[in-house]
Amino acid sequence: MLKLGIIGTNWITQQFVEAAAASKEYELTSVYSRHEESGKAFADKNGGQVYTDLDKFFNDGDFDVVYIASPNSLHFAQTLKAIDAGKQIIVEKPIVSNPDEFAQMKAALAEHPEIHVFEAARHIHEHNFRAIRKQLASMETISGATLTYMKYSSRYDEYLAGKDPNVFTTTFSGGALQDLGVYVVYDAVTWFGKPNRVHYYATPLRTGADGKGVAVLGYDGFDVTLNIGKNTNSYLPSEIYGVKDTIVMDNAAELTSVIYHAADGSTKRISEEPDDNPMIAEAKDFATVINDPKNPDNVRHYQTWLHLSEIVNSVLFDLRRKASIVFPADNK
């Protein structure tokens, strides 16, 4: 049983802790929060010793694996601290703010080869994601794709009220692209590879972050369009086009229902009913690698995931540059 420490006590941390418990691979032992009250409330519900000092958390906390779910701009420094502390690391997406931070993180990992850093891109670990990839391999031609993930954030109400929630500020490396956009960029990179060219048409907020936007990823012979947003809802399905055949997803990130429409007009459901908690699959996959790190399959899986993280990070950065979205983290 892996001992788990967490940084952050928001809703996504609660979901991961529940997934970790459901996987039967982790036990929550340590909780870090900047605020004693919120940390105690989380620990009272889920267990664990509470820390409000990050150094004490890493030095005194009894845990093997840390799950980092702090504001985006803090991921990099906290990941480096975790590497130095000898902890296995799961970081909520986006893993870091830019390619320079990613390169520094890789350099730190090279000095600690026993440590793994996993980006919590949960959907790529689910059966339905892999089912799409398998179906793509059988399609003779790929002619393009339209992938949509637009979901109204409750934090946007705060923004409209004149506040600046972390997720909607450049200060904390926020915005629609860095949040929901990560899912569809992961889709495109995993299914089609790194694009040759990118464009991002962002709708800016007063903070300089993007509330929504349309990205176009260019490949040899086709384009992939990404529709993303945190200040509105979309109920459009997502599609991958062959010539006469098409894969239709109810949602490019949730992947609850996936239908293959064949060239002859027939249809086939290629999805399974997902877990109630969508983070269970990733929790199991990460535990498998951590528990048996020298297994050749586990080594290969980890290297694949880290490489995907690096490409996604690069594509997100290139998209931001196209829209002139700059984070303070870019200028360090």
From TrEMBL:
InterPro entries xref list: Gfo/Idh/MocA-like_OxRdtase_N (IPR000683), NAD(P)-bd_dom_sf (IPR036291)
Coiled coil: none
Species this protein is from: Furfurilactobacillus rossiae DSM 15814
Domain of life: Bacteria
Pfam families in alphabetical order: GFO_IDH_MocA
Molecular function terms, GO-annotated: nucleotide binding
Domain (Gfo/Idh/MocA-like oxidoreductase N-terminal): residue spans on this chain: 3-114
Protein name in UniProt: Oxidoreductase
